[in-house]
Amino acid sequence: ITMSRERSDSQGSLGPDDEVMPYSDDETDDELDPGSDEEGPPGGPQPEEIKSTESGWSVKANDRAFCNLPEFQKKYLLCLKKSKYAGNGIKTYKYNALTFIPLNLFEQFKRVANLYFLALLILQVSLLKTALCYILFQESKWMNIHVGDVVRLKKNGHIPADILLLSSSNPNSLCYVETAELDGETNLKFKMGLKVTDERLQEERQLAQFDVCEEPNNRLDKFTGTMCWRKDRFPLDLDNMMLRGCRIRNTDECHGLVIFAGADTKIMRNGGKTRFKRTKIDELMNYMVYSIFVILILVCAGLAIGNSFWYEEVGSRAWYLKDGKDQTASYRGFLSFWGYIIVLNTMVPISLYVSVEVIRLGQSKFINWDLQMYYQEKDTPAKARTTTLNEQLGQIEYVFSDKTGTLTQNIMAFKKCTIAGRTFGTNLSFRVDFSWNKYADSKFEYVDHSLVACIRSKKDKETLEFFKLLSLCHTVMVEQKEDELVYQAASPDEGALVTAARNFGFVFLSRTQDTITISEMDQEMTYEVLALLDFNSDRKRMSIILRFPDGRIRLYCKGADTVIYERLSPNSRHKEVTQTALDIFANQTLRTLCLCYKDISKQEFDAWAKKHKDASVAMGNREAALDRVYEQIENNLMMIGATAIEDKLQDGVPETIAKLAKADIKIWVLTGDKKETAENIGYSCELLTDDMQIHYGDDIKLNIRVSLSLSPQNEILYEKKKKRRRLRLKRLGRRPASATPQDSTQPIDDWEKESRQVDFVNMACECEAVICCRVTPKQKANVVSLVKKYKKAVTLSIGDGANDVNMIKTADIGVGISGQEGMQAVMSSDYAFAQFRYLERLLLVHGRWSYIRMCKFLRYFFFKNFAFTLVHFWYSFFNGFSAQVAYEDWFITLYNVMYSSLPVLLVGLLDQDVNDKLSRKFPKLYLPGQKGALFNYKNFFISLFHGIFTSLVVFFIPYGAFLQTMGQDGEAPSDYQSLAVVMASSLIFTVNLQISLETSYWTFVNCFAVLCSIAIYFGIMFDIHSAGIHVIFPSTFTFTGVAPNALRQPYLWLTIILTVGISLLPVIFIQFLCKTIWPSVGDNRNRKKYEEEEEEEKKKPAPFQRDRRSRRSAYAFSHSRGYADLIASGRSIRRRPAVARPDPRDSITEVPQASNI
Fold first, then answer.
1. What pTM was estimated for this model as a whole?
2. Where are the annotated segments for Disordered (predicted)?
3. Catalytic annotation on 402?
């Protein structure tokens, strides 16, 4: 990037028209135009008045001080002000050095339990994990660019801001840009500088003041502004703007003026805000922690009251309990309350959250290491970019997908054609060898040798005419690059057709304003272009009128069958055969196009040319006038044939969508393409099937006059904008303009607006599949937000371009595909991989396993801690509610760390009810996660009551055994310390055998963990009960010799066995009943039922094949306007006259090209 810093004179400005501005949720009151209802100042420039205009977006070239004038300041904190012009530095990370600790602490304390633990171990683990993510993000040198700077961009460089093109090295300031990272389209688009800047900027150092344009907004398809230079005003539109996120192509260098920088750029306005995402289980655990707190307070309060009564009735009268303190029973009960808070705090242990983080980290690593999600062609593995959302992958209900680059490869391939009633492309064999053609594109593939043989024989004139038409009737631009022809087309479809003609021997070589040159079977021919009738969405066709070398005049036309058939001559042949071929192509979801021609006499053309000239200079409704003239010549056409192009899907897309649909996951496609294109892809990827009834938004009206289309989103944004503007005008003391007629269709109040939102979501969610067309990036995010808000559903968004970033950030789970559109979607995502088909494995395997493992882990963890902690509660009834613990202190310390943590941790990492193949084979196994059936309040209270039962057994059976017992030595081992050892041993056996019963997938590691936990318990217990360690630390280890003395008694071993048996017997009985009477979705009986259902589906007859004529027009509907105006103007061909001008290096300093991180 190169910047110059020269100063220019300031000129006047015009106020933007508020009606053309978008209605974005990102807009604030500071962005609203208080004068939007007023007309701009008449007459010429008024510099002094313009400076006082708040809302003006004035830019002066090479004058940074101008942007810092007081009138361009806005408040941002109390009385502090800053310039309303954003710098070009963009921060995509969540934290910086100053905000890292406070923001991370705030995020951690959204977990209620962390308020309980404060800054203990789990917080430290999370802080370290997040710090590693922060280091990865670096600010680039683009941050040094400011509004008003003139920059020089080099070929293949990224555009750092929204820039007004001033000049370029190409003829007439033509510049090609690739917008793949912006809108997903890989075909190049051209931008043009104004003629005045192209001619005069080269010889004058004084640059213009770019005067008022629209305020920064998120409209990628529109820009309105005015440039003032020497008291002249020049209108500007999107064709003059190069947007951030694009790349310079086929242009050595260009110069531009920065209009919007940083957060004001259109791509950032569509990016949305970075959101902190939490899983449903996290939210549920917060409420459960609240419940545990309430239970804890109630239990401690009850025990404290018990202590007060006990002391009043018993303790105060027992002389041996006198402690010499003059304290009332109530005060002693108050102290007992806090004592029990400490004793029973293990109901929510710190180790729970530590273990959850470890499990999530391990599950993320399994995703990263999955070789079945590794894309070898691009050496791209799957990447879990977060470790906090894994179990949410097992609860997805709605998937929102982009189309271009996500479902499709954005690559068009010429597959079949029909010529004069004969269809080619059906005789599949090995790949055709095009080595006979020196111009052939090595990447082109075709498998029907009969077509090549027909062309090379030169006997079939209609076949030759077919490919001659493809090589002549187009608006493709050609460039010679290292002895190779490089085509630049307005759409991938048109590029595919010209490339096909090239490989079959009809090579487009070059064009000028008035001629086009092709090679016809190695014979170079030049045709005079008399008229070029470009494509638009209303015409659905394009034509070219040529004068042949022998003087003949012929019109070639290609377009949608729906418009071509209406204009065919009655004498045209092959109409019925071509119609049949089109039906076949349509059923194969190919994009079709009809080709035809017409010979024109000189007298007919001269008469038409005069009308065409008059229409082309019409001052009003010029396009409509031209369309009427085009209609007069495009009639009585003769059919040649039709083409069939495949919009290549990514591998495995139909199968993935079918599997996700069986898992009751609803898939919505959100695309900026036109309806016909999106519908065609819907059929190709089997999102739409023949047995579905298709409803279009234009045809379905609700009783409140709202359609199923995206109009509710536009109305919502419109109402929000209008309300803000009314508030702003009221603050300025001005009255808002009266409502226009179109306002009658807008929501009247908030209630009606919300009812329209609900109606839209309810109707759309009733459908099996939804395709939203012509949506902006902001609208994509709005659709996701509405489903989240009104359906309370878990959503996933998947996309591959910068236009999908907002949608990815808004959904509960964001997935980025590292494709042809750059890495912006990946950098904003939670998970990333290279192909859409990997989504099936991510959800049905990793997501489902993660959810089941986490649920099983949490259920067991709550159980084992309730069983452990509530023993203290029962013991309180026998110790005067004195807050004395039932176990040895070291056992309490090591219970969750050493004795019971490893087996449940491995279950959370490795357990699986079925393997990955069965998980994908039976998608219905995914249903419990969507319903939240495996972990909810019901499961929580089951774990609570299970823990209560186990604690009762663990305490009262040993207690009963110790009431009347006699050891082998004649002594009664009925002391408190021996009771604690027996209870602890019984608990360790119970919880470790309980997790064994819960384990579905046994490995050596699981078996070792259970045995190792029990062995560690006995090893440590015998060590800390030994006389040697008591001698060293007499006050710390007080249970000297208890374990050896107690556990050598067979009676106590029988007590332990009885306690463990009674604890586990109900569990075994309930599991038996569940397996036999209430089998889960993963049990063998249900899997057999799913297999039977699949067999029945395979036996079903194929659905009735409906006529799908609308799908054949996909190419004509999707094709954007071509380069006809550019070609006709000659701006891309004529070289500008040489002008003596100073070396730009004299005033422009070169700096290294910065990357767009």
1. 0.74
2. 1-54, 730-750, 1092-1115, 1135-1157
3. yes
